Amino acid sequence: MKRRSRVLLILCVTLLIALLPTLLALPQFFDARTNTVVPGKLIPVSAEAKALHATLRIVDLHDDLLLWNRDPLREYARGHTDVPRLLQGHASLQVFSAVTKSPRGLNYDRNTGDSDNITLLAVLERWPVKTWGSRTQRALYQARRLRDAASRSHDSLMVITSASELAAFLRKPNVGTWALGSMLAIEGLHALDGLLANVDTLYVAGYRMMGLTHFFDNEVAASAHGVSKDGLTLLGREVVRRMEALRITVDLAHLAPKAIDEVLSMATRPVVVSHTGVQATCPGPRNLSDDQIKRIGANGGLIGIGYWDGAVCEVGARSTARAMRHVATIAGVQHVALGSDFDGATQVPFDASQLVQMTQALRDEGFTDDEIRGIMGENAVRFLEANLPPK
What CA–CA distance (Å, rounded) separates 360 from 182? Predict the structure, then answer.
């Protein structure tokens, strides 16, 4: 019996060793299969659009690069972003979001929080063991990944946590050519592990924008894609108050409509919707109604319009520009921004090296050069200057 058990153990270990290269390659395979560029969606770019694009300060409010096993400083043939491609696209500042939990069978209509794909991803990507059971630790790990990249970047990547740091960065003459600013955001406050004190923990780690939910209801609020379709919890109200006290921007992306209403009713500071679409051009459970757009504009908030099908239905830069035109008509052009959702397991019309596609699409939509400057980045710069912690 003992000999049989020993043989079985040896066979299991041998099989595991044989399968290990395949298992370790799974995250790369999944990354390449889910973060794709839809072929045939590029639009012709004029010399005038290229010339204007070269003068812009470009800011995007949402990118999930930190989830994937890619060095931000290296250029890759897969996925949508890395620092080299962002600089090729003339980006000035990118908000990078930490994803800490994602349910199996992900869909836009109804997800429970009973399962989690990120645990397996963390194991296969060899994240620290303490991240396997803690969503807070996953967020802290992703923050360290960004800071490590910045420390190795020879000043081509800077992590910004305050208005004074933002101002100093924007004074650099090489912004958008070989220097990229970055900020940290959270996609879903299940990353608190249910503890109000972890708002401060994440603030200390550098997080300055936090979405309350992602694809499922959590201890803080109901998701547009969850089960209850409810509002904020008691903890959620405490979390919003603490975020405002620390000057962490509240992100309404993925929130259930009732929760959006409740945040806007209690908010004393401007909010963002980091990546979304609008019901008027693309009906969907996570896209904004005209009433929500009006209320966010009245709050002084900022709405980042995405590039993927769930946001704009027909993938293409012109579809994104049409949604932006609608927000500008309802709330004012000063409330419109980029919210790509690059690397968010999305299919988009172009990667970060081709951001001039949006400049051309906005020209085609009839926006003026000054309005394009605002949408592509200046609206976000003004918002961050006013709402980040001063120092």
Answer: 25
Domain boundaries, the chain: 35-387
* Rounded distance between C-alpha atoms, residue 234 and residue 37, angstroms: 41
- What lies within 8 Å, CB to CB, of 328 at 6+ separation is 335, 336, 367, 371
Task: Tell me the one-letter amino acid at 26.
Answer: L
Q: CB–CB of 65/72 below 8 Å?
A: yes
Whether the CB-CB separation of 295 and 331 falls below 8 Å is answered with: no
d(CA 346, CA 82): 16
CB 377 within 8 A of CB 57: yes
Kindly tell me the number of DSSP H helices and DSSP E strands found in the chain. Answer: 15, 11
SS3 274: strand
Helix residue ranges per DSSP H, the chain = 2-34, 47-53, 83-88, 118-124, 135-151, 163-170, 197-204, 234-246, 257-266, 290-298, 309-312, 317-331, 356-364, 369-373, 379-387
Q: Which CATH architecture has domain 35-387?
A: Alpha-Beta Barrel (3.20)
Q: 204, 91 in Cβ contact below 8 A? A: no
Q: What distance lies between CA 201 and its chain's CA centroid? A: 20
CB 45 within 8 A of CB 361: no
The total number of residues written for the chain in this structure: 391
Q: Please tell me the predicted confidence (pLDDT) of residue 24.
A: 56
**What's the rounded Cα separation, in Å, for the pair 203 and 303?**
23
Average pLDDT, integer, range 142-164: 98
Give the model's pLDDT for residue 151: 98
Across residues 59-79, what is the average pLDDT? 97
- Using CA atoms, how far apart are residues 55 and 188, in angstroms rounded to an integer? 34
pLDDT digits (tens, 9 = 90+) for 283-330: 999 999 999 999 999 999 999 999 999 999 999 999 999 999 999 999
User: CA–CA separation, 307 vs 41, rounded Å?
Assistant: 11
CA distance 380 to 389: 15
Q: Is the pLDDT of residue 15 over 50?
A: no
